[in-house]
Structures are given as structure tokens and as C-alpha cells.
Amino acid sequence: MRKKIIAGNWKMNKTPSETVTLINELKPLVETKDADVVFCVPAISLTTAMEAVKGTNIQIGAQNMYFEESGAYTGEIAPNMLTDIGVKYVIIGHSERREYFAETDETVNKKVLKAFEHGITPIICCGESLKQREQGITIDFVRQQIKIAFLNVTADQAKESVIAYEPIWAIGTGKVATTEQAEEVCKAIRECIAEIYDAVTAEAIRIQYGGSVSAASAPDLFSQPNIDGGLVGGASLKVDFGKIVNYNK
Ligand SMILES: O=C(CO)COP(=O)(O)O
User: Fold this and answer.
1) I need a labelling partner for 199 at 20 to 30 A (CA). Which of 45, 54, 95, 189 fits?
2) CATH number for the domain that contains residue 236
3) What is the spatial distance between Cα 129 and Cα 99, in angstroms, rounded to a whole number?
4) 103 by DSSP, 3-state: which?
5) What is the 3-state secondary structure (H, E, C) of the chain?
6) Domain around 125
7) 96, 166, 180, 195: which is the annotated catalytic residue?
8) Ligand 1 mean position, distance from CA 9 (Å)
């Protein structure tokens, strides 16, 4: 049985002091033993967020990381800067980073490999645009993203990975994918992992759904056999996140 993982992607929201306030507000609401709960906060707030969750089971994640160790890469964050403060998760290849910051399947793969070198768990994002869905190429497209993201990743590493399936047309639009649409693609992703590795790896890997997840849609989505939780944007900044984490109560 895979443990659920429910992560909030705060995107570019909340100052460091606002981060502390929001974490203190959410802390009592997201207490659960049933799921891993992760707050992915802006890089500048990682240290304060780590302090704010001390003594709880909440984990802190970054929203991006560079694939080099150190050097002349102005504005980037190195993996050992994350591990130094105890960050355990990093979102890799979010569609917003692909769209606005030139992330490609190849840079995603480099970052995934680098994260594992440092013992950081990547939350690897994939998902189709509305045009691709309308063209009927969703599964082909997502399979390609997954195959490239996992190049040279070992089976043991893949078992620890988290994949977030986020259809771009459902992000920030209030237009959540239907439970059937989300389950269909998450199942296809698991089958793709089984083809690359084996059934045991496919059974172990955790696959989230992301895109306008709300307290109302979470129970159905997270009860699907191939959906192991969610990557939540807007609703992770509100008390609603507590309801999403406790979707089954
Ligand atoms: O992009 C997302 C999470 O990474 C989803 O964002 P929303 O939940 O705001 O649609």
C-alpha cells in the first residue's frame, strides 16, 4: 500500500514572515499519519519554513533546483544548499518553469539525477496542454516526458520518486480534470514506469494529480487506484488545505 503524499506548491506567494504565519495557521489542520504532507515554499522562505515546522511531521520542499554543484550560475540554487538546511523534496519541471523559464525534458532529467545524488526526493511534473488533449496525444506526450525524465535513473531511485501529473489546462483555471481523466493518465504513467523498469517499481512509485484540486474534488481524486495524492496550488494557501489533507475523514 502506497502512502499518500499531499504537497502544497505555494508558487511565488508569501513573504518569509507571511510564510511563518500561514504555516502556524495550517500546522494543526494538516496533522495526519496517513499521508506525507509537504509545503513547497519559495526559496527565500525555506529556512524560516524549516524552523516553523520543527516538531511536526510536515516536510518542506523547494520549487526548483539547479543541476550543477556550484559556480557561476547567478540566481540559481544548488542541491547542497537545500540539503544543508534539511530540505527533503524538490519540485522539478513544473509546467510554469517549462513555459516561462525554458525548462526542457532534458534539464528535468539532469535535475532529477542531481537531486538523487544528494538524497533529495524529486516531485517530477508532467502534463499536456489543452491543444494536445484535443489532438488526442495526451498519453503519448506524457509518456515521452516520463521516459526522458527517468533516463539513467535506477529502479531503486525511481521507487522513491514522486510524479505529479498536472494537465496544464487544469492549473489555476478552476477546471479540474474529471476523476476518470486523471486516473486514466496516472494509470498510463504507472504502466510506462512498469515498461521502463518492472512491476515492483511501478507499484512503489507515487503519482499525484495536480490542477485546481479543492476540498470538494480531493476525496474522489485521491480514492482512485493510481492517484496517490495531490500537488495543490491555490488551495494550499488556505485553510482548505487541511480539508484536502484529511480528504478521507
Ligand atoms: O500547478 C499546480 C500545482 O503545482 C496546481 O495549481 P492550482 O491548484 O492552483 O490549479
Assistant:
1) 95
2) 3.20.20.70
3) 11
4) coil
5) CCCEEEEEECCCCCCHHHHHHHHHHHHHHCCCCCEEEEEECCHHHHHHHHHHCCCCCCEEEECCCCCCCCCCCCCCCCHHHHHHCCCCEEEECCHHHHHHCCCCHHHHHHHHHHHHHCCCEEEEEECCCHHHHHHCCHHHHHHHHHHHHCCCCCHHHHHHCEEEECCHHHCCCCCCCCHHHHHHHHHHHHHHHHHHCCHHHHHHCEEEEECCCCCCCHHHHHCCCCCCEEEECHHHHCCHHHHHHCCCC
6) 4-245
7) 166
8) 7
Is 61 within any annotated ligand binding site? no
| Spatial separation of the C-alpha atoms in residues 147 and 197, rounded to whole Å | 11
Residue of 116, 169, 180, 110 lying closest to 141 (CA atoms): 169
Q: What is the rounded CA–CA span in Å between residue 111 and residue 32?
A: 30
Contact between 163 and 205 (Cβ < 8 Å): yes
- ipTM of the predicted assembly exceeds 0.90: yes
**232 within ligand 1 shell (Cβ under 6 A):** yes
Residue 166 among the catalytic residues: yes
Number of folded domains that form the chain: 1
Which tens digits make up the pLDDT trace of 38-84? 999 999 999 999 999 999 999 999 999 999 999 999 999 999 999 99
Residue 211 Cβ contacting ligand 1 at under 6 Å: yes
Q: Quick check: is 94 catalytic? A: yes
Whether ligand 1 lies within 6 angstroms of the CB of 127 is answered as no
> Which is nearest to 104 in space by CA: 168, 43, 149?
149
